[in-house]
């Protein structure tokens, strides 16, 4: 298949008629005059139509993942996978919209950055105009992650939605694809990102931000699926993803802007990887399994079998969780335990003598800073999240604003909050995100509560009503209440959408001023 991105510059490559087939029962031949060319995209969606669980066993894992992506078809996706794909799109779009309200400084940086290149207006920056597809993936990835309320695959420890969804949306809009194409691209991206992440965790996380590194493979897979690339080209795209994968965990102490840059850049790099492959550029064909490849370089204990184990039969997108609180996922179990204690025992926060969170080691090494002097630093600090939950009796967006993390009582309880690693709980992670919170009062009272699966985990999921409510609350930064309800329905019924472009244009307006 030969497709193309639209291009606004004077130099154009002639576009030939496109025989796209009928992948989702909604597209036929695309006429040559439908859009201008960004150059031909190489590959074919009309490769042999195999069942997605019969990828050639003799091939290496990079090739097997490439064949899986190239052969993936909407018609072969189980209904619960389609539903989950719509939900992760809904959640990601809502998080991006909310960023305009929760972190206007960061959102303005993202939108301005995308606009400064004066690139072809191919795809929408949510709340911020239109730009080139790769730049839209960059900006929207920053927006989705800006308020740290985006989804997480817990075994891979990736905010998959902030990387895969922006890349898939950008390519789908630029190529005027339909909803079924978008869903299929998102599923392809989730499966690849999660599997690469599981294969290099947990030692990968010592230095590397998994969303940035492993997410790049997911973005490349999503973009390649949206472009309709064949297996050879998808394999090349994965090679380009691996050589671009980057992003260090240094931000955990400061909460600086690199945290949100990472998913944006990963999404952009994924679009670039697919585009390079489409143009015929070459990359290492065994980027994942090569002795000098990704697994060897990025993990002290790589697990190559997890790249393809159950591929096409076990769907990792179903293991994705949605955040109930707008903070680091490691804080959610202790937040839940703390809120249960303070409400059940009617705790007076000024009488708290000590709070101890017994949990798994990664929390102590990555998420326990008390140097909370910015919004993102507050979101990334488990001790702060516990302290503000104990004082306020709730954890919502307002708990991460300066007036709360500077509050004297919150700071006093924060000083009295400790995080302690427990070897017994280490053995439960990452299947569970365990926390045992012990709250001690000045009068000698001692209260204890344990949470194994936080609210939003696949084993303790948000309901469809809760997810819709989260989206509507987030979307109010851009949409009226009625429009937010309509957008919820449109995304949940995405398989009926003929043009993703029309959906995205409704999200490109300026942020609303709430009265």
What's the SSE pattern? HHHEEHEHHHHHHEHEHHHHHEHEEHHH
CATH architecture group name of the largest domain: Orthogonal Bundle
Assembly context of the chains: single chain
Tell me the radius of gyration.
23 Å
Termini separation: 50 Å
Structural class: alpha+beta
**Count of alpha/pi helices:** 20
Largest sheet: 4 strands, mixed
CATH class of the largest domain: Mainly Alpha
- Beta content comes to 5-15%
Q: What is the mean predicted local confidence, pLDDT?
A: 90
* Total strand segments: 8
Question: What is the CATH T-level topology of the largest domain?
Answer: 2-methylcitrate dehydratase PrpD
Strand order of the largest sheet: 6-5-7-8
Task: Compute the number of structural domains.
Answer: 2
Measured as a percent range, the helix fraction is 40-55%
Low-confidence stretches: 8-57
Q: Please, could you describe this protein's structure?
A:
There is one protein chain. The protein has 515 residues and is an alpha+beta fold. The protein has 2 domains: 261 residues, Orthogonal Bundle (2-methylcitrate dehydratase PrpD); 123 residues, 2-methylcitrate dehydratase PrpD (60s Ribosomal Protein L30, Chain: A, 2-Layer Sandwich), CATH 3.30.1330. Helix content is 46%, strand content 7%. The protein has 20 helices and 8 strands. The strands form 3 sheets. Strands 6-5-7-8 form a 4-stranded mixed beta sheet. The protein has a two-stranded antiparallel sheet with strand order 1-2. The protein has a two-stranded antiparallel ribbon with strand order 3-4. β7 and β8 form a beta hairpin. α3 runs antiparallel to α4, α11 packs parallel to α14 and α14 crosses α16. The radius of gyration is 23 Å and the shape is globular.
């Amino acid at each position: 298949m030969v497709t193309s991105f639209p291009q606004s510059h004077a130099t154009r490559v002639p576009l030939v008629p496109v025989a796209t087939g009928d992948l989702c029962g909604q597209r036929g031949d695309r006429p040559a005059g439908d859009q201008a060319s960004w150059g031909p995209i190489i590959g074919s969606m009309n490769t042999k139509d195999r069942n997605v669980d019969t990828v050639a066993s003799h091939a290496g894992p990079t090739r097997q993942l490439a064949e899986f992506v190239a052969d993936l078809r909407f018609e072969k996706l189980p209904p619960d996978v389609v539903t989950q794909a719509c939900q992760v799109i809904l959640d990601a779009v809502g998080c991006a919209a909310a960023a305009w309200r929760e972190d206007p400084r960061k959102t303005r940086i993202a939108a301005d950055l995308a606009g400064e290149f004066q690139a072809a207006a191919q795809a929408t920056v949510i709340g911020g105009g239109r730009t080139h597809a790769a730049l839209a993936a960059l900006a929207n990835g920053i927006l989705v992650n800006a308020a740290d309320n985006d989804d997480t695959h817990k075994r891979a420890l990736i905010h998959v939605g902030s990387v895969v969804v922006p890349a898939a949306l950008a390519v789908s809009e630029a190529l005027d694809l339909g909803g079924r194409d978008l869903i299929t691209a998102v599923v392809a991206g989730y499966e690849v990102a999660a599997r690469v992440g599981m294969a290099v965790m947990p030692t990968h996380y010592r230095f590397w931000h998994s969303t940035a590194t492993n997410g790049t493979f997911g973005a490349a897979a999503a973009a390649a699926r949206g472009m309709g690339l064949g297996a050879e080209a998808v394999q090349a795209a994965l090679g380009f993803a691996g050589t671009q994968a980057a992003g260090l965990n240094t931000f955990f102490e400061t909460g600086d802007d690199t945290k949100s840059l990472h998913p944006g850049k990963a999404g952009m790099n994924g679009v670039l990887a697919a585009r390079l492959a489409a143009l015929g550029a070459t990359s290492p064909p065994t980027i994942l399994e090569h002795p000098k490849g990704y697994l060897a370089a990025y993990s002290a204990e790589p697990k190559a079998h997890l790249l393809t184990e159950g591929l096409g039969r076990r769907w990792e997108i179903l293991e994705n969780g949605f955040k109930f609180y707008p903070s680091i996922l490691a804080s959610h179990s202790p937040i839940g335990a703390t809120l249960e204690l303070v409400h059940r025992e009617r705790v007076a926060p000024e009488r708290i003598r000590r709070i101890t969170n017994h949990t798994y080691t990664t929390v102590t090494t990555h998420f326990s800073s008390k140097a909370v002097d910015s919004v993102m630093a507050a979101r990334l600090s488990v001790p702060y999240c516990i302290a503000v939950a104990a004082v306020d009796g709730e954890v919502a967006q307002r708990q991460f604003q300066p007036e709360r993390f500077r509050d004297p009582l919150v700071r006093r309880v924060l000083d009295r909050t400790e995080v302690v690693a427990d070897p017994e709980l280490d053995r439960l992670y990452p299947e569970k995100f365990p926390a045992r919170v012990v709250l001690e009062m000045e009068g000698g009272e001692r209260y204890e509560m344990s949470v194994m699966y936080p609210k939003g985990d696949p084993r303790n999921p948000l309901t469809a009503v809760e997810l819709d409510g989260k989206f509507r609350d987030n979307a109010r930064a851009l949409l009226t209440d009625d429009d937010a309800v309509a957008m919820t329905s449109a995304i949940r019924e995405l398989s009926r959408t003929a043009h993703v472009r029309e959906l995205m244009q409704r999200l490109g307006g300026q942020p609303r001023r709430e009265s």
